[in-house]
């Protein structure tokens, strides 16, 4: 502010705020409006009623000639005032035949009414409502000299002449002291409006010799149409004495600024406001109310008497803002009027809530009933009759102090945390630990991978964990969706191909082992056969002298045919000729192997032209097997490396997610150079993996080819041997 502190004076704003913040039915202080019993205050804390209008007749001076009027107090709730227009006055105007006027008031205080009675009847109920949290306004309306200032502020001579302001201050502080159930704060402001300009009467400099020396107060309207008064100081008053000092300061400033030349007091409006805020200890709800005590400018008018006008109808206000006040009041009294011209003058703007808004308003029509002022008195009464039609809607002004609310909520959170810790038996921090996060990641992933439709993800009754799992799941989903076509499908492909490679490898290994064992068996067999042959040769040599090995072998066979002792040998030779034909199945028929044939085959094989090719191929095959083996190992290595890199990326994600949970301001989507590097590495590894894999595939083809070649060569060798053997056998036969 806008020192004024009139914030929320706007009709709509205040009403809205009231509606928004009133949390529970409010009990309003009893005694509110006790003078003329108003309907009981509703629990909803909204009071709808017309402006109360009272009349006060100023004592007629000794030298004044009293006009004729009568007060009828018979009725309980209303009093009526009848004014008789003097003959001599009425006669002067054409078309004016009326001689008496009757006006109704809430109550009429005749000349002898004292200040204390005025306070008790008019001001005290309003003060009580202000203490309860409702806005209140009391304004005095009447011609200059009719007793407005006397009524509102009071007379300077006697203590008993104290007016409504000092008495209200005294009463309010007395009540505040009595009520220890709430914490109250009171401020006062004092505004003078002269010629559409606002002046702060509580300027503490005491230097004002003219109104213009006082700080100028201007009106500001916020988007919610709340009125704010810029530059109006709001002075805190802790007790009655401080408040009265401020009132005195304002009145002094008002007096000094007024010179006989400028009759400010008759043309200006003075608004003394008591601002009360109350709060129950520990509660975040604050009640604020404002009590305006208004001394309006003189309502006297310029009458165009004698110019053919009508008495009391052609008269114009001297003070323009009172003219606007009347316009506002006429507009408010009319039904279905949507636009109320509050903004036409500063005074109506400031008093907007007091007229047709969120306020309990009371008007005192001050009347000077001497003969000369009858017309003005009738004007005042007519004005009062219109004001009496205006309905106001006073709302209990409650609002929540956000700071107190925050403190209260914080306390509530702590209490709940304590309770939770008590129930669960574990202290919970706001964040999950790294281990917990990793564990939750695992659980979530396992849950996602689980094909069992009845599997559940149970992380216990811990909202933090549940939320974390959802976040992790989302991350996994997003991640897999983004890289669905790249990484995920690549993964599957890799998995497939690596499985294939492994199968091939196994097959090759098996084959190699089989071949190795076959070769071993053959070698062992050869060794055995060789030994047998040597033994046989040794025996043979011992019998028939020495001869060349191969010739002997053949000749032995021939001799055997003739010698019955060597019958078995002959049979063996026969078997051999058969077995030679079955050579491709040699490994499975080892038992039937003939020494001579084997020996001959070995020799044949050694000298055969193809044997070199076979040997070469055998070496090549061995080499290729070795190559395939090491390549297979390398492929495995690369695959492991890729998996490792992938693991690193996942770890990285977890870390970043944890970081994002710890400080949500960190963007998760931010570019991560480390991850990018890892991905690049994976790509590299994949390249070499593919390369090696293709190489391995090529090797496999080559190995298979070589095996076929060897197989073919073996078959050819055997066939050649067979042919040669049978030729030799025939020759020999
Ligand atoms: P206004 O403020 O309406 O111009 P004032 O309050 O200044 O009128 O009153 C004019 C004079 O009449 C003052 O001297 C005041 O003391 C006196 N006066 C007004 N009302 C009363 C009253 N009810 N009893 C005694 N004197 C009064
Ligand atoms: Mg006055």
From TrEMBL:
ATP binds at residues 142-149. Keywords: ATP-binding, Coiled coil, Cytoplasm, Cytoskeleton, Microtubule, Motor protein, Nucleotide-binding. Transmembrane segments: none annotated. The keyword Acyltransferase does not apply. One of its GO terms (cellular component) is microtubule. Residues 50-390 form the Kinesin motor domain. One of its GO terms (molecular function) is microtubule motor activity. Belongs to the TRAFAC class myosin-kinesin ATPase superfamily. Kinesin family. This is Kinesin-like protein. It comes from Nothoprocta ornata. The gene is Kif6.
